[in-house]
Amino acid sequence: MQPIDLAVPGIRGLTPYVPGKPIAELERELGIRNIVKLASNENPLGPSPRAREAAARVLGELHLYPDGSGFALKQALAGRLGVAPGQITLGNGSNDVLDLVARVFLGPGVSAVLSQHAFAVYPIVTQAVGATALVAPAHDGSRGPRYGHDAQALGQAVRADTRVLFIANPNNPTGTYLDRDQLSVLLRGLPEQVIAVVDEAYFEYVGRADYPDAMQLLAEFPNLIVTRTFSKAYGLAGLRAGYAVSSAAVAELLNRVRQPFNLNAAALEAACAALDDEEHLSHSIALNDAGLAFLGAALAARGLTAIPSVGNFISFDCGRPAAPVYAALLRAGVIVRPVANYELPSHLRVTVGTPAENQAFLDALDRVLAA
User: Which domains does the chain have, with CATH numbers?
Assistant: First the structure.
């Protein structure tokens, strides 16, 4: 008998999440240096200097366990968001919280609804616990942004056995979003047995007037969970800190299965400090706004169709199978992200970098497409 025969059914057929290629891996494979990584939607400015200093202050206490309750970070988040600390669940990145949701509310015999082209973690955590993932078709462009979540289709996909609805807003890898009216109508139409998870990993980057802050809907929808992260705009991807805000009753359930020390001491301290550095956050957002506009215009000038994005990345159609383009960009020392696993085989996703990194990507892309 093989080990896979001993695994629970949901794990046997599971394809694990594949992250963006690390710089060190490409260096080992090809022996090249001065690599530009624009694959994982990281903040090119890095973390706030205050966050770095805060993380460094705990290095002398690494023999001690961190605060398992995350008291200081919960207090800081509660003050910033206008919620009670008891409504907050901390996670080792927001991915951790998504896994908690699946373990609490999903299992064999029930289903979760998600959109076509939605973040890959949703079907992974669903299948891992033995639940069924129901995929609603995305917009085809006829009555909504192509590749974007179709709120009507998501609502229609809900069945009697559905327990969780995952909504990425904005979505990765498409960068599309549901506006305030679309999200509100979708939530109001859900049966009472459905937990709605609104994943706002890229919340800080969105500057559209009709983009909803799902935190403001918590009082109206007791089954709503909003997830956010410090990995993107706050630049703390390497420390892994995220959180969910929900009703206190839902948070209590999530915290029953949360590991007691799922955030390390450096992450807890750095996240608190990052919240206080509004200047660094504003600088990061301004850099992204300029870079997103620059890349969108540059891709259009090259005759490449991009999916309009409100995140810190943009996905574009190479006009041909994307895998060879991706491989050639790697040989040129530029790491982007193939998204064939999202049913977008001709697209690549590129993170907004510094002006120099954005130009290096475009120069490499020109060489690759001309070859």
Answer: 3-46+279-370 (3.90.1150.10), 50-276 (3.40.640.10)
